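Design review, sub-item: ligand-bound model
Attendees: FS, YL, KQ
YL presented the inputs for the magnesium ion complex:
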Amino acid sequence: MSTTSATDAATADPAVPMAAVVARGLTKHFGDLVAVDGIDIDVAAGETFAFLGANGAGKTSAMRMIATVSPVTAGDLRVLGMDPTADGPAIRSRLGVVPQEDNLDLELTVRENLLVYGLYHGLPRPLIRARIDELLAFAQLTDKADNEVESLSGGMKRRLTIARALVNEPDLVLLDEPTTGLDPQARHVLWDRLHELRSRGVTLLLTTHYMDEAEQLADRLVIMDHGRIIAEGSPRELIERHVTREVLEVRFGSGRQPAATDALLALGLPEVDAVEGLAERAIVHTRDAQATLDALDRHDLRPRGHLTRRATLEDVFLRLTGRQLVD
Amino acid sequence: MGAAPDVRTVPIGAATTRPALRVMAGEAIAFRRNWRGFLMSSFGNPVAFLAAMGVGLGTLVDRGGGTATLEVDYVAFVAAGLLAASAMQNGFGDGAWPVMAGLKWRRNFEAMMATPVGPRDLFVGRLLWATVTFAGNLLAFGLVAILFGALDAGPVLLGILPALLTGLAFQALSTAYTAGLKADTGLTNAYRFGIMPLFLFSGTFFPITQLPTALQWVAVATPLYHGVELTRKVALPELGPPVVSTIPVWVHVAYLVAMFAGGAWWAVRRLDRRLYT
Ligand SMILES: Nc1ncnc2c1ncn2[C@@H]1O[C@H](COP(=O)(O)OP(=O)(O)OP(=O)(O)O)[C@@H](O)[C@H]1O
Ligand SMILES: [Mg+2]
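KQ shared the predicted structure:
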């Protein structure tokens, strides 16, 4: 890796809108394993873009190439208009990175973590100090400023990692599973922080297992499976394109479920587009939930419980892959 | 949230210092937490060693005719050797556990790599900070040696330089070695089977002429021997052969510089491989 000065980055004119990330045929191999298999991506400046995919889909591998800390095996990649191989340091000086697993320095305090990171970015100390106070407020960690990082909760650590990623006021923030492992309340606090960043025009690129997260945050997303992109669009478009607006979940109890799902499929109901059988429930893509329930009743297939709900990205994923996102 | 930072107020990339210096500054901040331990060991170790080996053992050695053979009191002989040997210990240690921690446990190296800092900056920055702490350790050692009456102030200050070179050569090689390790058992083994034998048999405690001829050749091939000889020739200028070797000083220097350069090159390469996957 070259170690040219980060000041090169300043020559790129921030007033000219350009794509934050452009990838063509982006590929990553680890030995024989193909982690990312020729993906095309365009992330516009100011956009929030998500990678949705199950474990091992290749999300982190793609993110690490974009973060310029992993060599590209094949394909073209431009990040903030620059080439990751040649301009790694210049790109990273304008990038904020929130890795999948927190790598905060547990030996330092909250404030010191931000200070050290600001120093790595080559910022002058007075500027870092001023920024630390703002970032602590942003991350709601002002009270914890002088605590050791070790004493923070998971949600606080995650917020600190995000604050740390913002110390250089990046143009592009990469967030790898920002809320995995957090309780619902901590997730909502984080989403709130990310919404705020978005409203300031920062480009966000995130990965997630959670469809609600993608729906909440992303302008556009790609669904990844086995290193490939299998669908792309806004959350709304994807739902409209691949599933019915509403879905009906029917539960027959774990013993009866597989047989009941098969029986339901065999009925060939006209309003039903598809049925996804899961271990403990069936998800019925139907244009008329009430008609379907009535038909089940007529055929003596009475579910123990049922639920009609709006279709989600999870349903899209299930339709496209036959698997659930989080297992 | 009114207090939130405005993303557009400051020009992007207001970089001020070279990346290696930034890493060094980061090391200094982490160091602030354990300066007490640093002071304790900097002064405690030489006091313990010089009291036990120099004075305790030394009294016996000197009575048994040691002073006649060594030309100086044993405490002086061993103090000069320990200056280099303690630098080796520091060098090995600094390239071992903190590097393993940076890669695996503390993972601060990974965090650094997400910034403009690269593997070479990481290595150079740590080396610069190590130079400061090793120099501090050696100064403390020298001070204690002066207080023990073992060495004279002038030569001991000069002797810090070859000891420092020894420490940095070991730090570089040790960093390279650690950067390729998956588990820290490799470090314990390197200490047990590398550093310990060097410590005992490279001329720190007795002239290697006391060893069988074959082992003398082995000793001459090892890096600590050159560190100890060089340091002793500088810190005790009155000594001559056979207490010190007839090998020219430049050979010792060249050996240590070559080891440092090779270690540094290998360390950067291995860190790059490890962190950039
Ligand atoms: N450093 C590596 N060496 C070898 N194989 C790797 C490495 N990193 C990732 N892989 C493999 O590449 C594939 C994609 O992994 P990746 O971490 O990109 O998936 P992911 O979508 O981020 O998964 P998760 O949701 O579990 O984080 C997996 O099969 C993984 O085992
Ligand atoms: Mg991942």
